[in-house]
Give the backbone structure.
Amino acid sequence: MTSTSTPGLVRFNTLSDRAALAALHEVCASAAWGSELLARRPYATAEALFAASDTAMGELGPGDLAEAMAGHPPIGRPKPGDPVSSREQRGMAGASEELRAEMLELNLAYQDTFGHVFLICATGATGEQMRDALKARIGHTPEQERAIVRTELGKINRIRLTRLVEEPVEEGE
């Protein structure tokens, strides 16, 4: 992780509130999380931004957490035209039809059990690893699962925030 200010972080710090909120919404669909991060600008370092993200994630109420989860498509079914979810779910790209069918069945069972999409930080995970995690987590209590979901969202947000603050700044920006 970056320990100093990057051109991308400087750009983020100087965006209009509206543009910054739009960028944050691409990271996490929770309006409360985005508003909290916006209110703490400017950030001196990427670490300060990540720490604020972690704090805001920890403070989300059930409705805000549901809003954050709603921004994520089911594993194995990234949103059409969404390069972010496609990139993050790359581990499912070469999955067999059998694994895809199993993931669909498990995803539906998970949603029936918990009332929301199965959420995992899929970056770098294989389809089999995601399936195994889903199988292990489907037996959790709702309280256990909410805690895991909050942690997984935090990981996803850090990956996406890293991309946001480390993107090269185009000439003229």
The first helix runs from residue 7 to 14. The two ends are 24 Å apart (CA to CA).
